[in-house]
Specification:
It is built from 14 helices and four strands. The chain is mainly alpha-helical. The strands form two sheets. Strands 1-2 form a two-stranded antiparallel sheet. A two-stranded antiparallel ribbon has the order 3-4. Helix 6 crosses helix 8 and helix 7 runs antiparallel to helix 8. 13% of the residues are buried.
Length: 277
Amino acid sequence: MRQEYAASLSEPASADDCGDAMVLLVPVFQAWPDGKAAGAALAEILSVPAESIGAVSSWDDLVKHQEAIQERVRFLRLKKLAAYYDSAAIRRAVKRNRDKYGERYAGAEGFLARLDEWEKELGPLDRWVEQAGPGQAALLREYYQPQENGFYKCQALAPQEEQLLKETFQGLGFTALNFTDSRNAYQFYPLSRLWEDLQTALEAAIPLWHPATEPVSAGEVYRYLTGEEFVNHIAPQPIYYNYKTKYADVFGGRDGYLMGKDAVLSDIKKFVEGARA
């Protein structure tokens, strides 16, 4: 399905736009083959009247609205960037790319205009915080002090204050999980076994050693530690690290890995529990 849709997109649509569009259009796909319901879902996504969309029951029907879909994708991406990151840095990056690539960096002016638009809606940190209630707003204003560079710095806190701040951010739904793609897979290596592994490598006269472990996704780590599901798709293509070592058997491993996924997850849990103790 994605390949068929990607093939139908005209330039200058990018692969990133296509991937984000597929995520954005999930409600439309879920409504198929009911063309009327799919059209209503698309209208809601694009924030337009349902009658302006009509029935959507084929790829041709969907592609008719590709410009509006792409515009919505880019606006939502901009909105996320403006909410989570330094919008001044985003503006500098866009201008730098515009100066470097010229006409090949199409839509730069429109992008900057949208950023200006969203910044007006976003407002300062206090305005966003107030939406969570006066109690949380007062607490965050007390704990965070504005700096001359426009950022906020957290002051030194007592352990009970740190816990209260953590619970406040969790209640607001604003944690490190917001910035983590649940599909990203990494190769976690416990430093607790580093000395022993180095000795093994030296004894085996291994000239170049890679501490390869079986990849584990962020979602799998979260599920193993909490028993709950974590789904957050940020990038069209998630990160996937997966290098191997030909010396796995020397270290008691197999299939190119020193440690399998179960052992990695178990070690991560021990580390987290030890840090919390």
